Every structure is written in C-alpha cells, then in structure tokens.
Amino acid sequence: MYVKQDIRELQLEPTTRCQARCVMCPRRPHGGLIHPDLVKQDVSLIDFQYWFDKDFLSQLDSFILCGNHGEPVLNKELESIIEYFKSTSDAEVKLFTNGSARSSRFWKKMAELDVYVVFALDGLRGTHEKYRINTDYDKVIENATTFIRNGGRAQWDMLAFEHNADQVNACRQKAQSLGFKHFELKHTERFHEDKYEVHDTKGNVVDYIRPSEPSKFITEIHMQQREFPKPDYIDCFSKWTNQLFVSANGFISPCCVLDPALWKTPNDPVLKEMIDDFNDKIYSYPNLNNNSLTNYLIGSILI
Ligand SMILES: C[S@@+](CC[C@H](N)C(=O)[O-])C[C@H]1O[C@@H](n2cnc3c(N)ncnc32)[C@H](O)[C@@H]1O
Ligand code: SF4
After folding, report:
1. Which of 15, 91, 133, 238 gets the most CB atoms within 10 Å of its CB?
2. CB of 12 within 8 A of CB of 77?
C-alpha cells in the first residue's frame, strides 16, 4: 500500500513544453508531429503550494525535476518553486535538462541554489543534434560551463546509439576537463527493432537512428520477458526509492512509467498492453487538482 508518510522521493514534471524534438520522446513521436493528446501545461508556484503541504516536503530526501513530456527549465516559475522548496526542505534537488535554453543569469542562480543538474549531451557538436533535434551543442556547453564555474555540481548524461558510439571516450574526457562531477552512459530500451524512424515536423520519414550494441541486447531481453509469467509481487525502482511521480497536469502515480498522461501516448507495446489492462480496472485517474495528496494516499486509490 502507498502511504503518504512513507514517500521519500518526489519527481515533478514542471512543464509539458519543450523546444526540442528528441527522436524517441513521447512528446513528438519520432521527433515529428506533436502528440495529439498532449496538454500544454506549466506548474505554477501556486499549484505547487496547493498540491504539497510543508510537512510532506520536509519529509523528502530527494526532489527530482524531470517528467515525461517537457523541458523543466522552460517553466518560468522554476526558480521560485525551487526557492520555496529549499525554504521548507533539506532534500537534494536534481534537475534533468536538455541544457539548451535560458540565460547565464538562470544557470548562475541554479548553482547558487545548489541544484544538481544533469545535462543531456548525446555526442559532440553535429552528432549530439542527430537525436536531440532543435538543441544546440555549443549552447548546452556554454550553459553547463557557466553553471560549473559558479560552483554548480553537474552530470553529463549520454544516450548511446550506433551514430555516437565512436564519441563515448571523447565525451567522457570532455566532461572531465570541463569539471562535470559525473559522466553517465545510458543505453535506451526504446528500440523494438534494429532501426527507428526520424520524422520531420510534417510527419515525413527523413532518417533513421540505430541502437548501440547494449541497446540491442536490452531489447532482446525485454521481448523475452514478455513471455514470462507475471510475478505476484511488485519489486521495482519506485518501491526502492519510495517515489511519487506528479505530472504537470497534476496526475499522480508511483513512477514516471505509470504516469496517466503518458498512458495516452504509449509507444511501447508492453506498456500499451499493461495500460489497456489497467484502464479496465480504474474508475478515474488520481489528480491533485481534484483531490488532495492526503486523501489519495490513504491506500484507497493507489495500491
Ligand atoms: C522527457 S525527458 C525530460 C527532461 C529533459 N527535457 C531532458 O531531456 O533531459 C526525461 C528523460 O528522458 C531521457 N530520454 C530521452 N530520450 C530517451 C531515450 N530514448 N531513452 C531513455 N531516456 C531518454 C532524457 O534524457 C531525460 O533524462
Ligand atoms: S528535451 Fe526532453 S522533453 Fe524535450 S524532446 Fe527531448 S527528451 Fe523530450
């Protein structure tokens, strides 16, 4: 059972807006047309204060600013939300970003607020943009450098594909020379075959991306797992971290994968099957604009 007092990690999606067109992001399938079900929404400071009471915020160990459909730094009230959060809680604040927006003033402020920032950098100039369409490698490096020079703790996250495999060592070295605290290489699970279409903004296929070798392996394991009998217990990341996920529209769920806003946009066949099954059983999606966290987390809705 999910109990409010047990939650230690809050992941918030500050906005569903984004300037980028990353190829496998559910916001714009294949980087092309915007998903027809996407609701554009920002979380305001007032929403944040209404949704979460001070006791709840002060019990947290970790506050993650990320989400499924948007770029957190595009929320104009992000600084105020973080400042308010910091005035009520000692938890670590971790921000995931494409890093390609906002001024040097904003990045200095993030350093001052001691936010741990994870910059998405999927290769060097010219290669990074093949997946992170509409972002600018030089701008990300400039923003990360401003942040680090002002004392900020930064992480370089690199998604590995076939097209950037030969740049992993160069990126790792660059991360070190620029003063990033950590370099993380990630292999996506989102391929279901050996290639994935890239679309233009009209929905035409203009290119393909291909998986890294470990991504191919992960995909095979996933497909095999579909044949396994379903376990009769839950043991997952959300349970280990005691996480609550809150979308920009106010939906709550145990983790980002179960975000009801994502349920309208599943691009994974396993997730779609699970969602169809769950949709038959649930009578309404829990949303903090309709009822309070306290009322939801008495175990009657999220179990
Ligand atoms: C929807 S993004 C929101 C945060 C921010 N806009 C960003 O891109 O960092 C959430 C996370 O998904 C990651 N992501 C993007 N494409 C992915 C993929 N194909 N596989 C796994 N993670 C991916 C992003 O790097 C980010 O850490
Ligand atoms: S930057 Fe993040 S939210 Fe924006 S398209 Fe890429 S993965 Fe999606």
Report:
1. 15
2. no
